Amino acid sequence: MTLRGAAALLVAAAALAGGVIAGSGRGAAAEGPPALSAEAAMAALGRRLFYDGDLSIDGSMACSTCHGQRHGFAEGNRAHPGVTDEPGRRNVQTLANVGRRKSLTWGDETLRTLEAQALVPMFGDNPVEMGMKGQEAELARRLGTNACYVRLFRAAFPETGGRIDAGTVTRALGAFQRTLVSDDAPADHYARGRRDAVSDTARAGAAVFGRDCASCHAGPDFTDDRFHRLEPVDPRDRGLGEVTGRSADDGRFRTPSLRNVAVSAPYFHDGSASTLADAIRRHGLRVSAPDEAALIAWMEAMTDRSFIANPGFAYPDGPCEAA
After folding, report:
1. Which CATH fold topology does 3-180 show?
2. Which CATH code fits 186-303?
C-alpha cells in the first residue's frame, strides 16, 4: 500500500466512523484534569493499544502478536497469518528505533510515517492481517466503552475533546513506537569507546563487518534505509517494484536494521534464512570460518538486553495512567 493509499484509508476511516468523543461512551469517567501531559498520555495510550486485541476484527490479534518484545519487537516465524488465516507475505521487522527509519516496510519507500504504516495491518487487505477494513466505527465503539481509554484519549487529545477514531488511534500507536529506543547493547558501548564491552572475537567481527557489510548495514542502527537486490527476482514478490512499477526495482528490498538481530531470526524479507550463518552466506560473502564466527559474535553484541527486558515497553498490567 502506498502512502497515498494509506492516507486515503485514514480519511475514509474518519468519515466512516464519525468518531467517538471520549466521555460519551459507556464506562466514561467523570470529568477531571488529566494526570499526564498530552505527550505522555499519548505514549501510554499507544502502549495499551499496542497490546489490545480489540484492534483486530475477532479480538485475536494485537500489534504485539507479531511484534514481540523478547524478539526485539520482531517475531520468530517466517511470516504471520492474519485473522482469516491468509498467509503473511513477509517477515516481521524489529521496531527498535523505528522512529528513526526513513521508510517502514520491506518494499514500499512511500510509507514514511508510523501513523500511515499502522493503517496497513489494521485496515489493509493485501494480505488481510487484523481485518478491520470497513469496521472503523466498530473500532471506535469498542474503545469508547473502556473507561481507561476514555480518560487517556481525553488526556492525549484535548484539542479534540478526546475523540476516538482511526486517526487518534494511529497517532497514539506511533507515539508509543517512538519510545522504543535501543542504545544499550555491548556494540553501542564499544562504539562509544569501551573496548572491553565486547569480546576479542566480536572485535575481530567488527572489523570484518566494517569491511564487508557496513556499506549497506551502516550507521548506529546498521541500516542505510535503502533498497537493494541481493538475489534473483522472485515473481511471487517483486519487492519495491510492486509499488513503483519499474522493472529495475524488482527484487529490491529495504536493508533491515540489525539491532537485536540475534534474537529476531529468521531473516530476509521472506524469513527464508533461519540462522545468522545462513543469512551471511546468502549475501554471497566469501569469508573464512573464523571470520564468519567473528561476524556472528559481533552481531550477537548488537543485542540490547535492557531493551528486550524493559518493563516500560511490556504489556501494561497496572492501573490506568490517567486519573
Report:
1. Cytochrome Bc1 Complex; Chain D, domain 2 (1.10.760)
2. 1.10.760.10
